Amino acid sequence: MASTSAVPANHSLHDMMHDLMLKSDETEDDGISRELDLTEVGIIRKLRWHIDRIPILEKFRRSVDMAAMPTNREEYLRTKLHQAYPKLHATVLKNISAEGQKLVSPEKIKEIAEIFLQIAGGFHKKWFWTYDDRFNIRLTKFRNTPPTVSYPETFHLFPKLPSELRHMIWGFAVWTQDRFVDTYRLRRIKSAPCPALFLTCKEAKLHATKMYKRVRNGDLLYGKIMPASRKVRGPLISFENDIVMIGDWELWNSLGKPYPKEIVKLQAMGLPLRPIHKRIEKLSTWGFHRVLLERPHYVHPELLFYKNSRRHLTNFTKYGVRCDWGWTWTDNMEEVWTVDGVHNYIDDSVRKYIARVFPPVPGDDCICSLCERADLANGEPLLYQKPDPSDFEEHERIFETIDAGYYWGGNPMSMAQGLRLSNMQLL
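RE: above sequence
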């Protein structure tokens, strides 16, 4: 399992997005930056499975001089692609024509080849390859940046505003800091930068302090969580506003004795919980409102955002009960972010890319398994209509009424690993 990498303390979330997103704005051809239809997406996905032996990629790779690659890597690779394509033409026709018999136009085949090589090289504008879990590599779209409002750099009348209004503004500012808190499995805080508002002015610090808690020694399970004003050793966290990186959290990573099974058995027998169970329950009452996970990860992002999406994990048919004990810390979830690796098969490197996936930014597709399955249906009848990305109630209703394995054609291996898990693996 890949562990979550630390986020620079002096970077806001939007700084990270600016640094990590791949830039190819003015230089990419209009013809290959357009939306792909399902046939084209299907062909590119098929080509991916032959990526280690397909001659197109290998011939293109040999045309690239890694040592001479300039700072503007994307522009260099795009230029080399146009230079190398005449030599690749015969190989392109052989491979892509075999994958998509409907593509009879040489111009169309050339376009698909360019798109495929740009995605494989990690310099396409809209698509990239990434690991969804340890085993599944997925063709993924770059996400839109959450909308922001531009503010004037100075506002000299701010001190003259009513104190109530100033306090409201400072409260909103705590959220918009986009402050990262890195944790080890939600058990211990690994890093937590000083909140920016603590360095702004005395009034900002005074108000922001009320919205933070101090965790003694950074231990979320065994350390005391107290008001931030307390002068004790320990990092600060705002459970309502900070973006908490969950590391490789997986149902509290209980070894040997899966905690959900223990809880169900103890409750069925009328026995008290163990001390570790009580500590997890106490931490869960604080809740986390914004989280970030780095993929590949055992937990699919939708499991953190949609309560009914994890029904197959919380229904213990052996005991005839539903137990959400291990997930109660997500009850007030407002945002889920992911860090994905943008894979570059030209020089075998991976670049990090961060994005908000739930709720989807306006204009983005929903990445939940319901919507993904509907997109791949290609005319196949399903028991539900694809919900609107912003219709959260409809998502929950469908998740509640349809078995997680059914809408994947009874083949759970085709879904993400975090959705293949079942409570049978916890028994």
